[in-house]
Design a protein that fits this description.
279 residues, alpha/beta, Rossmann fold, Conserved Hypothetical Protein Ylqf, Chain: A, domain 2, six-stranded mixed β-sheet, 6 strands
Amino acid sequence: MSVQWFPGHMSKAIRQIKEKIKVIDCLIEIVDARAPLASRNPELTSINKPRLIIMSKIDLADPSVSKKWYSYFKSNNVEVLEMDLVNNFSYKLVLDKCEILLREKIAKDKEKGLRKRPIRAMVIGIPNVGKSTFINKMSKRKATGVGNIPGFTKGQQWVRSGDIELLDTPGVLWHKFEDEQTGIKLALVGTVKETILNKDKLSDIALNFLISNYPKELTKRYNLNNLDNVFYDIAINRGLLISGGEPSIDNAKELLLHELKNGIIGRISLEKPGEQDGN
């Protein structure tokens, strides 16, 4: 299954991001805690600027797996924060981390007698990881539009927030995924538009993953007695019927994908550190 989505505005956005690098102090990269590596754009990971990674949607991810990801980033000398951007956000934590990243520059500017100015940070990330929500929380107002549609933000804008100035950027994907699994993970967390995906195959992949990794959550959510004919049982248990009282497998598949993406089935992570190396 090939999952590709690269509208023209994304190519333009990548160029604009690289053009603005000279005027910023650091990067704040937002990733989805359920798939922290798959949700990083390789075209932006090589940018040579101090970087803070924020694992967003932490409330939807498996806590035990998130701890491993936190350790993974720290072991690679990357500053990282875990955040529920909606219900448990801390402006101070973000500012403190940025100041840690820039402590040498801040110290040098002080020695030179330069007046302290706001930190300039560029907020980057792929579509639908929470960049606009992050900026709105930082600015304590609705500075940018928030939508649950990949690619919602299509332009760049500066937002002043106390001791930090944030450059919001559109969510950008890259031209070609390295492997099929990356595209699948991004599809399951809602980074690419569902309308371009093969939902039938994607739902089968999602079900197999849940059976292998989160059978208890799956069984509890859909009141299953066994895992032999899950979509059929979901349709029956939820009353997803078509004419003649037949269970709608298509509707059951649609429901599973929707509830997985929105964290309704449970706190689920789609990848663990080391899996990409075959460990």
